[in-house]
Design brief:
The protein is an alpha+beta fold and 153 residues long. The chain contains three helices and eight strands; from the N terminus they run αββαββββββα. It has one domain: Roll (Ubiquitin-like (UB roll)), CATH 3.10.20. The chain has a four-stranded mixed β-sheet with strand order 2-1-6-5, with helices on one face. Strands 3-4 form a two-stranded antiparallel ribbon. A two-stranded antiparallel sheet has the order 7-8. It is globular.
């Protein structure tokens, strides 16, 4: 049995967009929408990426996170190289459908290409008065060796 083809609604007027139960994402001028991947269990932010229409539809169809790499200008199935895939548990959109939160089960050692579980491993020191603003590590330990995982990149 074939799975039905998933489609998206058309982005229309703001009022109907905010109240209708149709997914009609508002992509930016480059055809992208920001997507924050968060751990479905802990609610920890894992990474920020972008999706285009094709990668969003692939995500909906596969049940795994698929993004669009702005630097490589190509579709990026998270974990295709590292094996650290993201199983989608829930997708939320904001009121005007121009941003996404993707709750995922992070499979494998981590989400960040630096070898950490999360790309958000530093915080801004708000009260130290330094210029430029200083960062400190919230988590410095690596969960995998990126030199081994990405050796062919």
């Amino acid at each position: 049995m074939n799975n039905p083809v998933i489609t998206l609604g058309e982005y229309s007027d703001k009022a109907s967009l905010e109240e209708k139960c149709v997914m009609a994402p508002k992509f930016d001028d480059n055809g992208l929408i920001p997507a924050v991947a968060m751990d479905a269990e802990t609610k920890e932010p894992l990474m920020l990426a972008y999706m285009n229409k094709q990668s969003l539809l692939m995500t909906l169809e596969l049940g795994e996170a698929v993004y669009y790499s702005r630097s490589r200008q190509e579709i990026w199935h998270k974990g295709a190289t590292s094996g650290h895939t993201q199983k989608v548990k829930e997708i939320r959109t904001d009121c005007d459908q121009d941003a996404l939160i993707i709750y995922v089960e992070q499979l494998g050692a981590g989400a960040c290409h630096t070898g950490r579980n999360s790309c958000f491993y530093r915080k801004v020191n708000l009260d130290d008065g330094k210029n430029p603003a200083a960062l400190s590590f919230t988590k410095s330990e690596l969960t995998f060796d990126p030199n081994i995982v990405y050796r062919n990149k």
